[in-house]
Amino acid sequence: MILAVSFVLNEVECRVLSSLVEKEVTTPEYYPLSLNALVNACNQKSNRDPVMDLDEAAVRKALHSLEGQSLVRSVSPADSRVTKYEHRLQEAFNFYRHETAILCLLMLRGPQTPGELRSRSERMHSFDDLGAVQSSLQHLMKREPPLVKPLPRPPGTKETRYAHLLSGDVVQAEPEPERHAVTAEHFVDADRARKLEDEIAALKNEIADLKQQFALFRKQFE
After folding, report:
1. Residue 50 has what pLDDT?
2. Tens digits of per-residue pLDDT, 108-156?
3. Tens digit of pLDDT for each residue in 72-108?
4. CB-based contacts of 24: which residues, under 8 Å, 6+ apart?
5. pLDDT reading at 177 higher than 60
6. What is the pTM of this model?
7. Is 79 left (phi over 0), alpha (psi -120 to 50) or beta?
8. Residue 110: which region, alpha, beta or left (left: phi > 0; alpha: psi -120 to 50)?
9. Number of other CB atoms surrounding residue 163 within 10 Å
10. What is the maximal distance between C-alpha atoms in the chain?
11. Which of 4, 3, 2, 5 has its CA nearest to residue 165?
12. pLDDT (0 to 100) of residue 40
């Protein structure tokens, strides 16, 4: 049964959930994850944007919230005294493998283009081409409510980036008008020009003084 999205995940909850999803596929031998392993997964420096520095208390708080939303559960393996954690994304949404990979990457690394998603998804799911990535994005966009949305393309870019909506709607900051950059550049150039003009004027004054002194010096011998 597919559940309707009735939650909005914060940044830490998103990182915890997506780290569990990623590790289930990429390192199944260590999954489910202990609290310590999950903290390390959340804070790893590769394949994360932004890079975080979460402590156990922050991760534990996120786990508690996610458990309350039926997105994570704790388990106690028979061969270990340590409590471990696993995600329940499949139970919540009944995703296909390719949908899970796309959503996980968007949670781990923020808005991305189809080309970026394809190149970064290899360990989780191998897409044959960009068309397969676009198809997965369309499936996620057609969910009710949608789980992914395209973002407006900034000036000068050719590819559309996509963002997940598990943390609510994404409002992209408007790029500053190009004239601002031109004006700033103009101010810098004008300042440089004024400095050069001052330096040239000073040199002219020095040359004029030298000429005058030389003329006075010659008169002494005339």
Report:
1. 96
2. 999 999 999 999 999 999 999 999 999 999 999 999 999 999 999 988 8
3. 999 987 777 899 999 999 999 999 999 999 999 999 9
4. 31, 86, 87
5. no
6. 0.75
7. alpha
8. left
9. 18
10. 114
11. 5
12. 98
Residue 46: what are its φ and ψ, rounded to 5°?
-95, 150
Query: Could you check whether the bond before residue 32 is cis, i.e. omega within 30 degrees of 0?
Result: yes
Distance separating alpha carbons of residues 139 and 133, to the nearest angstrom: 10
Mean per-residue pLDDT of the chain: 86
Residue type, 132: A
- The three-point CA angle 217-218-219 to 5° equals 90
* Cα 193 from Cα 95, distance rounded (Å): 62
**Exposed/middle/buried for 168, CB within 10 Å: 0-12, 13-18, 19+?**
exposed
Do 41 and 62 meet the contact criterion of CB atoms below 8 Å apart?
no
What span, in angstroms and rounded, lies between the C-alpha atoms of 187 and 79?
69
Distance of CA 9 to the CA centre of its chain: 16
What is the token pair recorded at 170? 């994404």
69 φ/ψ angles, rounded to the nearest 5 degrees: -100, 10
Contact 107, 17 (CB under 8 A): yes
For residues 87 and 171, which has the higher predicted lDDT (pLDDT)? 87
